[in-house]
C-alpha cells in the first residue's frame, strides 16, 4: 500500500516538469487566444473591451476572410494531392528501382527543404517573372512574337496556382524522404514472391507498397494540412503580399494584416481561433476517412 | 536519499528560472563611476536616410546635456518594438517611426491613444539655443493629421524629414525625343499616345502603397484642399462628390496606359523591377519619393539617363498642380519613463546643429532655415524646388479613427489603394472601386 503511494508520487514528480512546461507554453497561450478573440482590442494598450462573440459575427460576413479561407483550402487540397502523388512516385522509383545516380537524386530532391522559404520565394519570383523569367522565356520560343507573356503573379485567376507551384516544389523532397524510409522497411521477400507469381510492378506497388506505408501516409496527411496553412503565409508574404488586390490572401496573412496593420488584434485572434478549430476539424476528418486496419506481416 | 536528490534538483531548476528573470530587468539609469547619468532610450527605423544622422545628433545631444542616449535603429523596428510596447516594460522614450510605415505600429499607437501630448514642446527653448521650437518649425506642419491626428489642436507627433513626392522620369529621354513634361492631364494622355507609338508605356508604379501620396495630390487637384480635409476625416458626403469621383476616373484612365507587367511586380519582392522600367525607358513616369535615386543607384540604366522630377499635372489648364509632402514623425509613447528628457531631445532635433547633422544624410527637418542648406549644386535641389515651380504642397494621411474590424481602407493592399491593381488588370471597373471605397468610408463614419 505504502509502496504504491510512493510510486504514484514519484510518477507525479517525474511528469510535473513537462506538464508545467506544456501548460505554460501551449495550453495557456491557446486558451488566451480564445479569450482575446472575445475582445475589441488594438493590441498595444490596456483598453480592452469585451464584445462577446461579435468578432466572430463580423468574421462570418467578411468576404475578404471567406476569400482567404477559400484560397487556403484550395492550397491544402491541391498541394496535398500533387505533392503526395509525386513524392510517393519518386520514393517508389528511388527505393525499388536501380537507376544511375540514385543518391544524387535523393540529395537534389531534398535540397528545397534546406533552403529557407524566403529564398524559395525569391527563386520563384524570378522563375515567374513575366519579362525574362524562366517559364515565360521558354514558352515564348514556341509562340509568335505578338504573344503576351503569362502573368503568373499578376493575373488574379492564376496567382494561387503559382503559389501552389512553389509550395509543391518545396515540399516534395521532404515527404519523399519520409515515404522512402517506410518503403525501405518493407521486406524484400514480399516483392520476390510477387515477382514469382508474375505480378507487374504497378500491381506490386498498389498491392504491397501502398498498403504497407498506409499509416505513414495518414500521418503525413495531417502534416500536409498544418504545414500548408503555415507555409502558405510565408510564401504569400514574400511573393505577393496577398495581392493583386487580395487574390492570393490566405487565412494567416489575413490574420496578420488585421491584427497588426488594421489595429484589430482581437479580431485577428478571432481569425486565429477559427483557423485553430478548422485545422483540428480537417485533421480529424482526414484521420477518420483514411482509417484502415493496420496490416502486419 | 533519492528523494532528496530529486527535490534538490527541482529546487535548483526553479531557482535558476527565477534568477534568470531577475537579470532581465535592467535599470533605466546606468552607473558610470559613482555618479548616476540619465539614460534616454531612442528607438527608430533604419530607413532610407540611414543611421549616421541619428548617431551624430545623439552624440551632439549627449554633449549638450550630459545625458546618455541609447540609440536603437533597426530595419524591422516595428516588429521588434511591438512586443516591447505590449509588455510595457523597457519602453523607449522616443520612437522614430512614421505614420503608415510598414507594420502600422505608429498607426496602432494613434488608434489606441498611446502617444504623449507634446504640445508644450512647441513653447520649449531648444537646448543650446535661444529660440523656441514653435518659432522654428515651418507653419502648417504641426497641424497636419500626421502630427495632430485627433484634430484637437494638440501636437502628438513631431514632424521631421519632409520630402516632396511626385512623378519621376528620365529627363534624358524627354530631351532626346523632344517631349515636354505635361502640364495637364490632357497633355499627359496625348504624351501617352505618342509614347505608345514608340513602344513605351506612360505609367508604372512600384506597389499600390505608393498611391497614398499620388492619390492625395490628385484629390487635392480635383476637389481642392477643403474637400480633401473632409475626405481625410471620413466624411462620406464629401467622398460622394463628383469632383472626388473625377480623381478615381483619372486613375482609371491611367490604368489603360500602365505598363503591362506592373501588377505582376507590384509587391515587396518585385517593386524594384517596376522602378527599373523608368531606367530602361520602358515606362515614362513612376510616382515615388526622393529616396528613389538612392534606392536605384546601382541599377543599370539607359544611355543618357538623367533623373527628372515633377508634380502631378493639373486637371485643367491653369489649374493647381500638387506634390504631396511626405513627412516622418517622432513621438513619445505613453509608457515612456523619461518623458521630460524625451521632450528635450525632440526639441533638440530642431536646433541648427541637429538640422545640419541630419542634412548631411540628405534628411531635411521642416525648420524655417533648413531650406537654406539646399544649395544650387545639391541634387536635392531638383526635388525641393518643385514647390518654387508653382506646385502646391499637400499632406497625406487620414484622421485617427477607432479600427473597424475586417475593413482595411488605407494600407498598401487596402480598399483605397490595393484595388488599383484590379483596375489596372481589368478585373474591376473604376465604378466598382469607387463604390467599395464609399462603402468602407461609411463604416468608419458613425
What are the main properties of this structure?
heterodimer; A: 297 residues; mainly alpha; MetI-like fold; two-stranded antiparallel sheet; 12 helices; 74% helix; 1% strand; B: 446 residues; alpha/beta; D-Maltodextrin-Binding Protein, domain 2; 9-stranded mixed β-sheet; two-stranded antiparallel ribbon; 14% strand; globular
SSE arrangement:
The complex is a heterodimer of chains A (297) and B (446).
Chain A: H1 2-36, E1 39-40, E2 49-50, H2 54-61, H3 63-96, H4 102-114, H5 117-128, H6 134-141, H7 159-184, H8 188-196, H9 201-212, H10 214-239, H11 251-261, H12 265-289
Antiparallel strand pairs in A: 1-2
Helix pairs in contact in A: 3-7, 3-10, 3-11, 4-7, 5-10, 7-10, 10-12, 11-12
Chain B: H1 2-24, E1 30-32, E2 35-37, E3 39-45, H2 52-65, E4 68-74, H3 77-87, E5 94-96, H4 105-111, H5 133-136, E6 158-170, H6 171-177, H7 185-197, E7 201-203, H8 211-232, H9 236-239, H10 242-256, H11 262-265, H12 271-279, E8 283-289, H13 292-295, E9 307-310, E10 322-331, H14 339-349, H15 352-359, H16 380-384, E11 392-394, H17 415-418, H18 420-425, H19 430-444
Parallel strand pairs in B: 3-4, 3-5, 7-8, 10-11
Antiparallel strand pairs in B: 1-2, 5-10, 6-8, 6-9, 6-10
Helix pairs in contact in B: 2-15, 8-10, 10-19
Helix content of chain B: 40-55%
Q: If you consult CATH, what is the topology of chain A?
A: MetI-like fold
Just name the CATH architecture of the largest domain in chain B: 3-Layer(aba) Sandwich
| Helical fraction of chain A | over 70%
Overall mean pLDDT of chain A? 91
Q: Overview of this structure, please?
A:
The complex is a heterodimer of chains A (about 300) and B (about 450). Chain A has about 300 residues and is mainly α. Chain A has one domain: MetI-like (MetI-like fold), CATH 1.10.3720.10. Chain A contains 12 helices and 2 strands; from the N terminus they run H-E-E-H-H-H-H-H-H-H-H-H-H-H. Chain A has a two-stranded antiparallel ribbon. In chain A, strand 1 and strand 2 form a beta hairpin. The longest helix of chain A is centred in the N-terminal third of the chain and has 35 residues. The two termini of chain A are about 45 Å apart. Chain B has 2 domains: about 180 residues, 3-Layer(aba) Sandwich (D-Maltodextrin-Binding Protein, domain 2), CATH 3.40.190.10; about 220 residues, 3-Layer(aba) Sandwich (D-Maltodextrin-Binding Protein, domain 2). In chain B, about 40% of the residues lie in helices and about 15% in strands. With about 450 residues, chain B is an alpha/beta fold. In chain B, strand 1 and strand 2 form a beta hairpin. The longest helix of chain B is centred in the first third of the chain and has 23 residues. In chain B, strands 3, 4, 5, 6, 7, 8, 9, 10 and 11 form a 9-stranded mixed sheet that branches. In chain B, strands 1-2 form a two-stranded antiparallel ribbon. Chain B contains 19 helices and 11 strands. Chain B starts with a helix and ends with a helix. In chain B, about 50% of the residues are buried. Chains A and B meet through helix 1, helix 2, helix 5, helix 10 and helix 11 of A and helix 1, helix 3, helix 4, helix 11 and helix 18 of B.
Amino acid at each position: 500500500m505504502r509502496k504504491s503511494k510512493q510510486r504514484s508520487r514519484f510518477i507525479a514528480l517525474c511528469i510535473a516538469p513537462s506538464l508545467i512546461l506544456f501548460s505554460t507554453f501551449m495550453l495557456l497561450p491557446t486558451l488566451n487566444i480564445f479569450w482575446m478573440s472575445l475582445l475589441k482590442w488594438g493590441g498595444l494598450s490596456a483598453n480592452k473591451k469585451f464584445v462577446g462573440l461579435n468578432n466572430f459575427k463580423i468574421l462570418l460576413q467578411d468576404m475578404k476572410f471567406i476569400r482567404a479561407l477559400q484560397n487556403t483550402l484550395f492550397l491544402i487540397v491541391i498541394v496535398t494531392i500533387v505533392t503526395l502523388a509525386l513524392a510517393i512516385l519518386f520514393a517508389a522509383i528511388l527505393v525499388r528501382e536501380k537507376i544511375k545516380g540514385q543518391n544524387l537524386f535523393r540529395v537534389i530532391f531534398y535540397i528545397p527543404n534546406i533552403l529557407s522559404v524566403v529564398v524559395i520565394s525569391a527563386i520563384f519570383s524570378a522563375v515567374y517573372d513575366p519579362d525574362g523569367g524562366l517559364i515565360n522565356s521558354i514558352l515564348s520560343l514556341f509562340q509568335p512574337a505578338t504573344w503576351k507573356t503569362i502573368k503568373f503573379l499578376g493575373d488574379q485567376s492564376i496567382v494561387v496556382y503559382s503559389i501552389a507551384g512553389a509550395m509543391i516544389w518545396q515540399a516534395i523532397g521532404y515527404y519523399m524522404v519520409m515515404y522512402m524510409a517506410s518503403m525501405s522497411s518493407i521486406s524484400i521477400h514480399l516483392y520476390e514472391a510477387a515477382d514469382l507469381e508474375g505480378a507487374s510492378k504497378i500491381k506490386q506497388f498498389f498491392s504491397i507498397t501502398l498498403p504497407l506505408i498506409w499509416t505513414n501516409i495518414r500521418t503525413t496527411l495531417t502534416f500536409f494540412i498544418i504545414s500548408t496553412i503555415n507555409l502558405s503565409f510565408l510564401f504569400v508574404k514574400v511573393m505577393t503580399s496577398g495581392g493583386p488586390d487580395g487574390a492570393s490572401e490566405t487565412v494567416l496573412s489575413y490574420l496578420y494584416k488585421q491584427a497588426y496593420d488594421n489595429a484589430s488584434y482581437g479580431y485577428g485572434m478571432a481569425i486565429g481561433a477559427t483557423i485553430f478549430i478548422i485545422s483540428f476539424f480537417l485533421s480529424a476528418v482526414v484521420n477518420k476517412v483514411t482509417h484502415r486496419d493496420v496490416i502486419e506481416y | 536519499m533519492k528523494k532528496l536528490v530529486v527535490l534538490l534538483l527541482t529546487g535548483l531548476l526553479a531557482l535558476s528560472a527565477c534568477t534568470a528573470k531577475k537579470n532581465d530587468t535592467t535599470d533605466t539609469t546606468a552607473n558610470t563611476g559613482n555618479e548616476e547619468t540619465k539614460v534616454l532610450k531612442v528607438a527608430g527605423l533604419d530607413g532610407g536616410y540611414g543611421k549616421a544622422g541619428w548617431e551624430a545628433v545623439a552624440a551632439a545631444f549627449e554633449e549638450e546635456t550630459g545625458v546618455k542616449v541609447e540609440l536603437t535603429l533597426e530595419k524591422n523596428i516595428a516588429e521588434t518594438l511591438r512586443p516591447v510596447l505590449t509588455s510595457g516594460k523597457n519602453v523607449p522614450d522616443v520612437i522614430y517611426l512614421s505614420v503608415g510605415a510598414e507594420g502600422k505600429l505608429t498607426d496602432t499607437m494613434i488608434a489606441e491613444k498611446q502617444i504623449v501630448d507634446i504640445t508644450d514642446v512647441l513653447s520649449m527653448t531648444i537646448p543650446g539655443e535661444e529660440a523656441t521650437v514653435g518659432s522654428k518649425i515651418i507653419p502648417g506642419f504641426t497641424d497636419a493629421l500626421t502630427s495632430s491626428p485627433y484634430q484637437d489642436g494638440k501636437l502628438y507627433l513631431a514632424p521631421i524629414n519632409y520630402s516632396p513626392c511626385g512623378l519621376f522620369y528620365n529627363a534624358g529621354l524627354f530631351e532626346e525625343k523632344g517631349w515636354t513634361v505635361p502640364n495637364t492631364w490632357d497633355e499627359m494622355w496625348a504624351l501617352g499616345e505618342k509614347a505608345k507609338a514608340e513602344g513605351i508605356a506612360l505609367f508604372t508604379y512600384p506597389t499600390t502603397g505608393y498611391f497614398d501620396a499620388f492619390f492625395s495630390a490628385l484629390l487635392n487637384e480635383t476637389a481642392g484642399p477643403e474637400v480633401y480635409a473632409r475626405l481625410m476625416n471620413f466624411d462620406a458626403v464629401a467622398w460622394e462628390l463628383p469632383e472626388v469621383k473625377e480623381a478615381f476616373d483619372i486613375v482609371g484612365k491611367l490604368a489603360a496606359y500602365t505598363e503591362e507587367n506592373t501588377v505582376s511586380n507590384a509587391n515587396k519582392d518585385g517593386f524594384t523591377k517596376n522602378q527599373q522600367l523608368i531606367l530602361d525607358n520602358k515606362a515614362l513616369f513612376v510616382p515615388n519619393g526622393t529616396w528613389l535615386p538612392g534606392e536605384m543607384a546601382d541599377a543599370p540604366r539607359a544611355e543618357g539617363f538623367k533623373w527628372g522630377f515633377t508634380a502631378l499635372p493639373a486637371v485643367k489648364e491653369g489649374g493647381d498642380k500638387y506634390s504631396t509632402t511626405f513627412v516622418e514623425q517622432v513621438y513619445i509613447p505613453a509608457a515612456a519613463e523619461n518623458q521630460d528628457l524625451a521632450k528635450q531631445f525632440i526639441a533638440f532635433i530642431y536646433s541648427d546643429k541637429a538640422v545640419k547633422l541630419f542634412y548631411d544624410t540628405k534628411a531635411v527637418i521642416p525648420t524655417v532655415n533648413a531650406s537654406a542648406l539646399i544649395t544650387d549644386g545639391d541634387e536635392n535641389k531638383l526635388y525641393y524646388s518643385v514647390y518654387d515651380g508653382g506646385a502646391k504642397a499637400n499632406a497625406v494621411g487620414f484622421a485617427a479613427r477607432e479600427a473597424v474590424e475586417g475593413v482595411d481602407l488605407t494600407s498598401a493592399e487596402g480598399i483605397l489603394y490595393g484595388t488599383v491593381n484590379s483596375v489596372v488588370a481589368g478585373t474591376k471597373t473604376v465604378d466598382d472601386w469607387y463604390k467599395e471605397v464609399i462603402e468602407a468610408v461609411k463604416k468608419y463614419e458613425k
